[in-house]
Amino acid sequence: NIVSKDGYLNQNTGAFMCNDSTKGLNHAITINTFMRMFNKILATKGLAPIQIGIGLGCDYELIVKLRDENHEINDKLWIGNAIGHATYYANLANRNGNLPIMMSKTFYDYLIRALEKEEANFGHAIQPYYENGTIEAYQCNLVSSQFNKWVSEL
Q1: Model pTM greater than 0.90?
Q2: How much helix, strand and coil, in percent to the nearest 5, is found in the chain?
Q3: pLDDT for 11-41, tens place per residue?
Q4: Phi, psi of 11 (to 5 degrees)
Q5: Which whole-number Å values give the CA distances from 2 to 13, 16, 17, 21, 104, in the listed order?
Q6: Closest C-alpha among 92, 96, 83 to residue 57
Q7: Closest residue by Cα to residue 145 from 127, 126, 129, 122
């Protein structure tokens, strides 16, 4: 498990946990941009592209610091729905016509509020994902424009 100033990465599930939806989306955009670059390199070598799904979940969580009498285990246990949601949407993303980044409705709601505060305007690039005629989640294929320009010049 990797802890950074921006959040916590669970290496078992691949779920990145943070308390800021814009940072979470920015990390997803970075991963998606890297995937695009890597696929371009694979194509130049005649290899098949990789497809990864990126799932973003958000919920109230319980974080438990683990410790016993003799040793402190420098690990956190995350209990809640966010990891399950992120994993579920990662499994749907980039498959069957779905876009590479998928997010729960709760994550999207927090994200849109944060983007309005920052006066950022790329919410239009995020599309609803329907299941049985109902909006179940949201999806996008956002990449870093500066890095993407460099990738296109490879």
Answers
A1: no
A2: 40, 30, 35
A3: 454 455 555 677 788 888 888 988 988 998 9
A4: -70, -20
A5: 12, 9, 10, 18, 23
A6: 83
A7: 122
